[in-house]
Every structure is written in C-alpha cells, then in structure tokens.
Design goal:
Number of helices: 6
Order of helices and strands: HEEEEEEEHHHHH
CATH class of the largest domain: Mainly Beta
Strand order of the largest sheet: 1-4-3-2-6-5-7
Number of strands: 7
Helix content: 55-70%
Strand content: 15-25%
Shape: rod-shaped
Number of domains: 4
Length: 299
C-alpha cells in the first residue's frame, strides 16, 4: 500500500495537534497521563480565578484548576472543576478559598477540616469563598483611612501654620545662640579640666601629706594614757564638788560670808556711811582740808 503525500500531511497535522494539546496542558501544569481525582467548588465570585491556576493544601501544591463553568441562566454560582492528586483525601467539612497577592497572582487554597472518619468523594462539590489576602486587608482599611483624611488635613494645616509662625524662626535663632554658648562653655570646661589635670598631682601630694599628719595624730592619740587622764579628771571633779559643798555650808570663812546676813547688812551700812561722808566732804571741804598762808586755822 503506497502512502500518498496527502496522508503524510494529515498524519503530521494530527501529530502536531496532539503535541500542541498535550504541550499546552503541560505548560498549564495539568497532568497528562495521571489519574487525578476531580472535585467541584462552588463560588459566588472567583476574583480572576482561571484555568491552570494552582491549588494548595497547607502550602503544598496538590493540583490545578481544570475548568470554570458559569451558570448563565440563573447567575447564582460559579462551578470550578479542580484536579487534585489522588493520594489526597479531603475530609468532610473542608472548604476552599481564593487568595490573591499584591502581584495579582491568584491561587486556590483547600482548607482541610479535622475529620479523619469522613471524606469528600471525587465528583462532589466543596463550598468556596473569597479571601482578599493583603489586598483585602488593605481594602478593609480604606474606610478608616477615609475618616482619617480630614483630621490629617487639619493636622497638616496646623503644622503649616506653626512653621509659618515667626516665633518659631526666632526660637530657632535663639537655639542657635544657645548652641554657640554651649560650644564656648565646652571649650572653657576643657581648659578648666586641663588646669585641673595639672593641679591634681599637687593636690594628691598635699592629700598624702595630710593623711600622713593624720596618721601621726592618730598614733599620738593612741599613746595617750586615757585611764590616767580620766582619773585626774575625776579627781578634779571631786575637788570641785568638795569646794561647792563648803561654799553651800555655813562652816568656814567663805560659807559664813555667803550665808551670814549680818555681813551683808554691815556692808550696806558701811556703804551708806561712806556715801554720806563723801557728800559731806564735797559740801564742806574746809572741814577736812586745812590750808592757810598765815597759818590760821579755819573753823
């Protein structure tokens, strides 16, 4: 049987179509000859999910999105067909979520439930939901940011008013002057510290001399006979007590002088007589002083 050119061209075209088909599926990440399990996930919003997007479970890639079917008649939900590794057992109660990052990459995460007894059979439908990821969190912050914008405008206006206030410029000028003064003071302190560094050795030498004298004084004090000195002090105090006792008693000359009222009265009487005598001498001096050129005596 002779193969014509037309048959050869047809065979090459068929082989090319098959290679193209399997090559595209391979590039999309779909398994070519594996027996993956097929599941369905229902969404209300797929947020840019498309065929060949990866599917992850606990951060590990377990499959790809096979196809997406939209309900054009009712428009209630979108059914996504996924191919998952047949070694993965999806527990009952598991769900799926669509997550997109800041670069716009979209992936499907399987949220596996903790149910080791029951599992989702291939061909059954899993409930899906949307997870905005970082963009969703940012979008949640947008209302708060919108509320903050008027306050930020007010704060910026206050800051601009503060910066335009001449008092701020004057304050900065004063601060510059204070800085110059501090610089001058620092230089003076450096000079003072330099002088102190020169004087410190002399001061230490004098301090050593003072300590030496203190040690000598301490040694001299240690050599003093404290017991004998205290005995002499006690003896002196005893003599003072005896002297005080004699003064307080009526015996002896000092005691009699201190306690005899007759002496006090006689002394007062003597003082009064002396006072009268002085007055009489001042009034009649000729009675007491006799002076005459011719020797005549005055009466």
């Amino acid at each position: 049987m002779k193969i014509t050119k037309e048959i050869k061209i047809a065979l090459v075209a068929i082989v090319g179509i098959l290679v193209l088909f399997f090559g595209l599926n391979f590039l999309k990440g779909m398994s070519l000859f594996s027996s993956d399990n097929i599941y369905y996930v229902s969404f209300k919003d797929i947020s840019g999910l498309s065929s060949s997007n990866p599917i992850y479970a606990d951060g590990y890639k377990v499959g790809v999105v096979k196809s997406i079917q939209y309900d054009y008649k009712h428009g209630k939900e979108i059914l996504v067909q996924i191919d998952v590794d047949n070694n993965l057992r999806i527990p009952k109660g598991s769900s799926a979520e669509i997550e997109s990052d800041l670069m716009g990459n979209v992936k499907l995460n399987l949220l596996l439930a903790n149910n080791p007894r029951e599992r989702v059979n291939p061909g059954e439908t899993i409930v899906g939901e949307k997870n905005g990821g970082m963009l969703g969190q940012v979008s949640k912050l947008v209302p708060t940011i919108e509320k903050m914008l008027p306050k930020l405008d007010s704060i910026l206006a206050s800051v601009n008013g503060l910066l335009a206030d001449p008092a701020l410029a004057n304050s900065l000028h004063h601060i510059e002057g204070i800085t110059d003064n501090l610089h001058t003071t620092s230089q003076q302190l450096n000079v003072l510290m330099g002088g102190l560094n020169k004087d410190i050795p002399n001061l230490l030498h004098k301090a050593d001399g003072v300590l030496t004298n203190t040690n000598k004084l301490t040694s001299n004090l240690a050599q003093v006979d404290v017991a004998n000195t205290m005995a002499q002090v006690d003896q002196t105090i005893a003599h003072l007590k005896d002297f005080t006792r004699q003064l307080n008693s009526r015996e002896g000359t000092l005691g009699m002088l201190l306690h005899d009222p007759t002496l006090y009265n006689n002394m007062n009487k003597t003082m009064r007589n002396a006072d009268s005598l002085l007055i009489n001498v001042r009034e009649h001096p000729k009675r007491y002083v006799h002076f005459s050129v011719f020797g005549k005596k005055d009466k």
